[in-house]
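Need tokens for this chain, all 536 residues.
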Amino acid sequence: MAIPVVDIFAGPGGLGEGFSSVIRRNKRVFDVKLSIEMDTNAHKTLELRSFYRQFPVDKLPLEYYNVIMETDPMRREELKSILFEKYPNQAIAAGEEAWCAELGGKNFPPELIDSRIRKTLRGTGNWVLIGGPPCQAYSAAGRSRRQWGEQLDNADIRVHLYKEYLRIIAEHQPTVFVMENVKGLLSSKLDGEKMFDLIKCDLRNPSSVFPTKKSHRYKIFSLTTKTIDYKKGHPIYNNDNDYLIRSEEYGIPQKRHRVILLGIREDISVVPETLKKFKKFISLADVIGDLPKIRSGINRSFVRSEIVKGKKKRIYRNENDSDRNWLKLINSLRKEIVSWNGFTKKHFSARITTPVNGIGSEFISCKTPARENPLFEWYYDPKLRGIANHVSRSHLVEDLKRYMFSSMFAKAYKRFPRLNEFEKHSLELLPDHENARSGKFADRFRVQVPDQPAMTVTSHMSKDGHYFIHYDPDQCRSLTVREAARIQTFPDNYLFCGSRTAQYHQVGNAVPPLLANQIAEIVRTIFTEINVAAKI
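Here are the structure tokens for all 536 residues:
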């Protein structure tokens, strides 16, 4: 039988996707029985992907692809309803697995959560708990914005949401658990104590925080480093960074650094394997270079500043967004930037032409991924004749100029420009805000360099694309949802639901499925050893 999995704080399902993608003899090794997520859009994404998993491997109905290949969001919802009506058993199973619930919320008390988990696991034996409690409170960027420094705010409920994860471990005693969080967890402090030390101590003995009749302890392992010793049965490592996974070392095309803990119940005498490093990095261009070229949208342009009631107010003019106007604007920007000191025409084509796909679409018919893509087998679905969620944003004309400069600079110098280099070329490029020269936002307009892994994809993409500028000057835009999903290693047949803002947010908060798949393989070997020991 497949190994049961419960996924909490599931987001759009990156961890669950990695586990469910472990295949042996054309069957899934892991069965995601329950996914809990509070965000309604992420829940819709989870439900559709759960429906996908209700079918045998490679036996998905063609109607599923009709949903993905629909370009109109309202019509897509209609097709999804038709799909679920045609396959009611699978739809019911998907609804039972994907649960929209807020762990720690007043409307979802522990008794309700526990009842649902017990019902889900009834009749099963060994199982796995996976998930990543909300991490914004631990992130270095989050603490900086709140001026906490390294010190956390005890009043911030997100600081304590890991205890919901802990309580479920104490109450339900999974055989194995996998817990993911941000790198900032290693340096966070609460009331002067290192948060990471407190969490490790709690995870080793969950019942010390949440007393239960069962009182199993857990051994906490690194997934990257072999233990150097044991103390009272617990693995010992040289330092906390041994728990840090640098994703680019494991075939993920981004420099995403996350803390991931592997817990094994103390009665299981298995020492897990560690992740195997890839021989070389996978670059950004490797995974998004074969996607259809699209142009940016044009939003507004700055006219002048006025003082209104003692405050500075910027006045804008709405621009007509059309292929013709975009082409005229972009070529004008190109000509201006090439004329500046430090750039030469040899780096760039003489004139840009409008991409045939315009600003993109919720689905574009095309041949992708390319066979040369190093993750071809992971992304590819032979029944999917194109790509979804590939629509560009609209940007201010002033920002388009900054995007053009950044991408041209990166093409010429193989790195992204800092804000002081914007100012050196033209005062017009410097953003009009008081912190522009402070040095705090030196990488505010950051182009992603093509021949390296991308920088960490984050949920901030839902606000703007300034940190995720496409490297191709001829497209002059920020990354699309699908490009971000490729960087996060979501398969191309993974559809993100909700508005484009919601889609960006989901992708940015996810665990890369390909990394989760490698972790799942390690967990699989643990269960294999458990089963072998049980037969002896």
